Amino acid sequence: MKDKKLILTAITFFLIINTAYYWQGKLGFLALFVFLILFVVFIVLGILLFKEIYYAIVEKFKNKKKLLKIGIVLSILLLTFFKPFGLIDFEKFEGNDILIAKREGVANCMTTLKLKDNSKFTEKSVCFGINEIKGNYNFKNDTIFFENVSLNIENDEFYKFAIIKPSKLFGDSKHLALVRFKSIKDTIGNELFIEKDELSKLNKKPNR
Prior knowledge:
Blueprint: H1 2-18, H2 20-27, H3 30-58, H4 64-82, E1 97-104, E2 110-116, E3 120-126, E4 130-140, E5 143-150, E6 161-166, E7 176-181, E8 190-197
C-alpha cells in the first residue's frame, strides 16, 4: 500500500506540473502558494526516494517492486528538475506570435502581451503570482479592439482597445509602444514596449 501511495503521489505531482500552463494563470497570487507546496512535495519525494534507494541497497536490489518504484519516482524527479515548466510547450499550439509587447514594473514584475496570428491574445503578468488574461482581438482602422476577454480571479475588467504609437518614454519614433485604454474617456493609457511586430504578415497592420 505504501508503494502505491508513493507512486500515486509522484504521478499526481508530475501531472500537476505538466498542466500548469492551463491553471497557473487563473490563480493569481495563489499560484505562488501552489508552487511553494509543489516545491515542498518535490523535496519530500526526493527524501523518500533516497530512503527507498538505501533499503534497496540493503536488500541487495532483490526486491523488483521496490526497484520499479525507485525507477518511476526517480524518472519523475529528474524530468521535473530538468523541465520544471513541463515537458510540452502548450503555448505553441495556440498560434504564432505576431506582436509581443512587454513592460517591467516595480520589484521586477513583468507584463507580457502577445497577439497571435489567429486573432487571439494572451496577457501574462508575473508579480508575486501569475495572472493571465485571454481573449480575441480585432482590427478596425488604426485600432486594436479586445473582445471575448476571459478574466481571472484578480481582475474584473480589461482594456477595451489599443493603439500602436511612438513611446512617450523614449520620445522618438524609433521606439514603438502598444498603448492600451480602458475606455474612450481614458486619455492616458498604459504603455507596453513592443519587442516584436509582424502585424504586416496579416495584411491588417494598423496605420501609425
